[in-house]
Structures are given as structure tokens and as C-alpha cells.
Amino acid sequence: MAEIVLFEHINFRGAHKHLYGSEGNLAAPDDNFFNDKISSFVVVSGSWQFFRDINFAGPASNVFGPGRYSWVESVGIPNDSVSSVRRVA
Q1: How far apart are CA 32 and CA 80, in angstroms?
Q2: Mind listing the domains of the chain with CATH numbers?
Q3: Computed over its alpha carbons, how large is the radius of gyration of the chain?
């Protein structure tokens, strides 16, 4: 099973959210807190890619494998810009 943990602030601080599969809409009405609020993340397992818009549209990031990424801008993702996250097979 793949897992990624998203964090609201730099250095793994603030609110966090675990994902075990792709999330096409971080702006969904039932759970929209993390839309455009991701500043750091931890890839526990699997490979993941970020998108600026919902439904995996807009500019895409590189694919990230297991590791701790303390600041999204240091890996080429603009801060507070992610609206969907896809697990890459």
C-alpha cells in the first residue's frame, strides 16, 4: 500500500493528512482544508505526483519516492499551490 503525509506548514508542522491513494480534488466540499495549503510532505511508500489544479490538471510536479520533503519550493513545487495528488504506479 502506498502512503503520503501532507503537511500544512514547512518542516512537517501544522495540520496533516494521510493519503493512501490518489486524491483528485483537495477542494472537495466535504474535506477541502488542504487545497492550496501544502508546504511539506513525507512519502512513506510508493511514488507520488502533485498537480496545481483538481482532477490532475495544470502543471505537474516531478514524481517523488520515499523520503522527507521539508519545503515544497526546494523541490520545485510552488508553496500553497497543490489541488490534487496522484499515486504513480
Answers
A1: 13
A2: 3-88 (2.60.20.10)
A3: 11
pLDDT tens track for 60-84:
999 999 999 999 999 999 999 999 9
Instruction: In whole angstroms, give the CA distance from residue 16 to residue 31.
Output: 13
Using alpha carbons, select from 61, 20, 58 the residue that is nearest to residue 38.
61
Q: How confident is the model at residue 57 (pLDDT cuts 50, 70, 90)?
A: very high
Q: What is the pTM of this model?
A: 0.96
Report CA-CA distances (Å) from 66 to 30, 45, 71, 77, 81: 29, 5, 15, 17, 21
